[in-house]
Every structure is written in structure tokens, then in C-alpha cells.
Design a protein that fits this description.
four-stranded antiparallel sheet; 2 domains; five-stranded antiparallel sheet; 37% strand; alpha+beta
Length: 133
Amino acid sequence: MQVAGAGLVSVWVNSRDHCDPHVHCADKAGKWEGRIRFSFLNNLATFWDCLTPGADPGSGVFNEISRNLVQHLRRCRAEWWRLHGGTVGCCLANSTQHDAVGQLRRVSQAVYDAATDVTELTFANGFKRRMNP
């Protein structure tokens, strides 16, 4: 996928990756590569880090990429889930989230539905909550 940020940059999800959910991005010349975090619970994208410190284009570039990536987060979540749904999933298991009545509880399972862009949280007490970013 291409996203604006100091020109067009390439954005992708690695097939052998780890939590937190994130995408990689790089300039067309391949001089730098960075990571942008995203969530299955909201439409926030935030700069994580630059993997090529000697060629870091600066936080302004990554913040612009993050802002422009927001409109593509559904696609990012779907690709992350396609690649990682059977392993690390949404990276929400064992985290603490608010249940349907606002109580903080431990998440025992999180399942994402790419067709509806909905994440269903199952809490340790069996309660469920459907979240649409």
C-alpha cells in the first residue's frame, strides 16, 4: 500500500512479526524504514520507531505517515489478522480493557472480524464486548 509522508511511502505488514500490531513503512529509495503502531480497538496510529537510525527522516515525517495511515487502518487490521490471527492475534489477550459496563477486566481472548471491522473481546469472567473502531 502507498501512503503519503514526505512523498509516497510503502507500507506493509511483515508475515513474521510480533506484538504490538504495527506496519512497516519505507521511502521509495529504501534509505529508511520505520514502524507505526495501530490498534484493533480504535483508529489511532502512532509512530513507534525508526529501524535505520542513521537515516532517520525525523518525527515530522513519521507523524505525517501516521496521520495519513488512519484512513487505511481497516485494511491494516485485516492484513495483520490474516497473517497473525492464528498466532499473536490482536495482541489483546491478557491485557486489561473496559468491559461493557466500564469495569476494567482481563481479556482472555480477542477475535477480529475483517468483514465488519469488529473486534470481540471475551473477558476472564466470560463477559463479551464487541468493539468497532
